[in-house]
Amino acid sequence: MLLFAGAAVSAYYYFTYDLPQLFSIDDYKPPVVTQVYADDGSLIAEFYKERRVLTPYSRIPKRVVEAFVAAEDADFFQHPGIDLSGIVRAFIKNLQAGRIVQGGSTITQQVTRSLLLTPEKSYVRKIKEIILSYRLEKRLTKEQILSIYLNQIYLGHGAYGVEAAANVYFNKSIGELNLAEAALLAGLPQAPSRYSPFSSRRLAVDRQIYVLNRMIEEGYITHLEATQALNTRLTFAEDRNDLFYTAPYFSEHVRRYLERKYGADALLTEGLRVYTTVNVADQRMAQQAIERGLIDLDKRIGYRGPLGSIPKDERASFCANLTPSDLSAGAIVTGMVTAIDKKNKTVAVCIGSSTGEISIRNMSWAREPDPEVASDYAHIGSPEQALNPGDVILAKILEPPGKNGVYPLALEQAPEGQSALLCMEAETGYVKVMVGGLDFRKSQFNRAVQARRQPGSAFKPIIYSAAIDKGYTPVSVFIDSPVVYEIPGQDKWKPSNYEKKFYGPTLLRTAFIKSRNVVTVKVLKEIGVKYVIDYARKLGFESELVNNYSLALGSSDVTLLELVHAYSAFCDGGELVEPIYITKVVDRDGKILEENLPQRKRVLSSETAAIMTSLMQSVVTSGTGRRVKALNRPVAGKTGTTNDLKDAWFVGFTPDYITGVWVGFDDHRPMGRFETGSRAASPIWLDFMQAMLEGKPIKDFHLPEGVVVAKIDPETGKLAGAGDKEAVFECFQAGTEPTATAQETVKEEATLDFFKSDLGASTSLQ
Fold first, then answer.
1. Are 623 and 514 in contact (CB under 8 A)?
2. Is position 114 annotated as part of the catalytic site?
3. Distance between CA 528 and CA 578 in Å, rounded?
4. How confident is the model at residue 673, as a pLDDT?
5. Cβ distance 302 to 370 under 8 Å?
């Protein structure tokens, strides 16, 4: 007897000396998904190692608990953590098989194994599991053990716990599940990948039936309820990966910030709740505006040719194998040209078993690309100039088929250009929209915050604002005349205007509104390059700025974010508003880790900001930004175009929002003749802002007390007469407005005669 007792003690010690310490329910902190929310509280992104959302036991429906208990451990509420009959039954099965094929585990044992032991299959591990499970039952209540189990269990497709599974399979929270859905989830633990409805609907339903029968046997439901559940039509969630594409560039920007500040482990396991500023509806409208704008640009550039060409003897089988998934109006489909009618100027296209037709008016844009020819003046006159039978093409379905069953089509091609759009709320700095490119799936590079490109004339508001602060006024006069600068170690530089003309005596306001390069360079020379660089730093520019006169033409590479940020000072009365992407970050316990409130810093006088806003309003009413007049509400802004037409910009603002748009190619190739900020970028800006502001009240810009409005002659800058029909209203700082007898002030050259002759001497470029 003593020998037996000693052996028992030794065996107990052997199995228990290195057992892990038990935990309390408060110590249960498994990896939890980080969730990112839009400004309306909707979920836009999740980051995780294990996709788990902790849910208190009190919030888990009774039917869900009953379904899992009936399927996994019917005696859970009666046994002390282990089921001896189940263990004996599993032992016999394993003996018969000659290996471990059945575990006979209770829910408590599954929790013990998952949290305290390794998943290895051995008798030693099994004995330790039994001992720990018995101890765990003494430490925790049945409800606490179930709470851990229902949050810990893996249920397939990256989902850990019932809350995540409800979301993955049904796009619901756990509290919204019906009996049919609960039973299906309860059938998954045995083999999540095998019984997943995404893998096999038949096997999933078989397990669902098993669970419902077990619930009947345990008295949880009636036969009628089970029958009703089986007859319930299940609607499964779409691919959850699409969630991230609600606002992909914004979500990825937030992810990088969180990882940088809190670390990758916290991002993926600590269940952060991240509340952001993005607006999902506005984000969608911006993406659509970019798509439309780039498609239009691509067509103006010209047709790059078909996707391929099918030999004559293979065309029938090729058409038979085409299976378009969507034939609704607006859908883009792949088709093959079957015939060209030269007389009627139409193209017959097979789109699977259906037929379409392209008329010449819906493909006239398809000229060969030529950067020296503007699309306004070059169109094809007949289909054979672009297409041949056998050509594989993209086409848009314009409307349902007519009586002849033929779909009206338009020739399309996938755009190669890129664009970025960023919109910030003026009062708060909340970034409502961030689109960093045409398609995040194809390119994750965020052109709104990562790309540095030359802003061209979009940088000029910084130059002219600095000049206003130096004492110049909108009616200060500069001579628009040829000038040459020497660049040490390089050729002489002779700046020119976009129109390749010089205009003589020019008001500062005219030079700004018409985006005259030569005058801007001369303004920069007068106020000093270093002064402007320091001024730009004050407005939030962090990129390296060139230390020479080409700075006036926007030759420094900057980001779209920097431009939008800087323009906030003009929109907000001289106060620079910091962009905010995240309003609050909360940890899994509800502790606020960070909270971001609007931050404003005065960088300009309210008078300078108002004058610049007025000038940028004139850019819209009578300058290079005239396209956005169609917004039909107060708006100010500036176009930007590089001399080689590689970058096009429009940055504009209403009293409530500052929005910037960039358009170009990633490889920096020119877009083509006349593809300026006005033509390529401002239509995207207008398209987005019209949709975003629809139904919102119209507001006007605030005019501070230190600013007066004078009616002036736009040619001379003098006060206008009573009957002057060409007169315009302009803002001035009080005391600097023109008088009735004011004479023109020439800042550089004294006479027009000087303008008429080219400069004979050079000036060093600093």
1. yes
2. no
3. 27
4. 84
5. yes
- Render pLDDT for 516-550 as a digit per residue (tens, 0 to 9): 999 999 999 999 999 999 999 999 999 999 999 99
Q: Given 66, 72, 137, 749, which residue is catalytic?
A: 72
Compute the distance between CA of residue 110 and CA of residue 93 in angstroms, rounded to an integer: 19
C-alpha span between 313 and 472 (Å, rounded) = 75
Q: Is 481 helix (H, G, I), strand (E, B) or coil?
A: coil
Mean pLDDT of 571-598: 96
**HEC string of 22-55?**
CCCHHHCCCCECEEEECCCCCEEEEECCCEECCC
Which of the residue ranges 121-125, 598-602, 674-678 would you say has the lowest mean pLDDT?
A: 121-125
CA torsion sign for 216, 221, 222, 223 is negative
Given a cut of 90, whether residue 298 has pLDDT beyond it is yes
Centre a 10 Å sphere on the Cβ of residue 20 and count the other Cβ atoms it contains.
11
For the chain, what is the radius of gyration of the CA atoms?
35
Helix (H) or strand (E) holding 355: strand 354-359
CA nearest to 340, candidates 331, 349, 351, 332: 349
What is the spatial distance between Cα 720 and Cα 89, in angstroms, rounded to a whole number?
Answer: 103
Per annotation, catalytic residue among 105, 251, 359, 457: 457
Query: What's the CA gap between 516 and 175, in Å, rounded?
Result: 64
DSSP code string of 488-549: TTS--B----TTS---EEEEHHHHHHTT-HHHHHHHHHHH-HHHHHHHHHHTT--S---SSG
C-alpha triplet 610, 614, 616: angle, nearest 5°: 115
Q: Which two tokens stand for residue 503?
A: 């205009």
Catalytic site includes residue 457: yes
Give residue for tokens 């669902």.
208
Query: Is residue 523 within 8 Å of residue 472, measured between CB atoms?
Result: yes
Q: 45 with 134: CB under 8 angstroms?
A: no
Residues 6 or more apart whose CB falls under 8 angstroms from that of 263 comprise none
SS3 assignment for 274-340: EEECCCHHHHHHHHHHHHHHHHHHHHHHCCCCCCEECCHHHHHHHHHHCCCCCCCCCCEEEEEEEEE
pTM: 0.86
State how far Cα 763 lies from the chain centre. Answer: 46
216 touches 196 (CB < 8 A): no
pLDDT band at 763 (very low <50, low <70, confident <90, very high): very low
Cβ neighbors of 197 (< 8 A, separation 6 or more) are 169, 184, 204, 205, 234, 236
pLDDT: which is higher, 673 or 481: 481
Residues 49-76: tens digit of each pLDDT: 999 999 999 999 999 999 999 999 998 9
Separation of alpha carbons 109 and 149, rounded Å: 10
CB 647 within 8 A of CB 657: no
pLDDT tens digits, 386-443 = 999 999 999 999 999 988 999 999 999 999 999 999 999 999 999 999 999 999 999 9
Strand, coil or helix: 168: helix
pLDDT tens, residue by residue, 678-712: 999 999 999 999 999 999 999 999 999 999 999 99
What residues are paired with 47 via a beta bridge? 34
pLDDT of the residue at 136: 76
* Sequence-distant (≥ 6) Cβ neighbours of residue 96 within 8 angstroms: none
> Is residue 325's pLDDT more than 90?
no
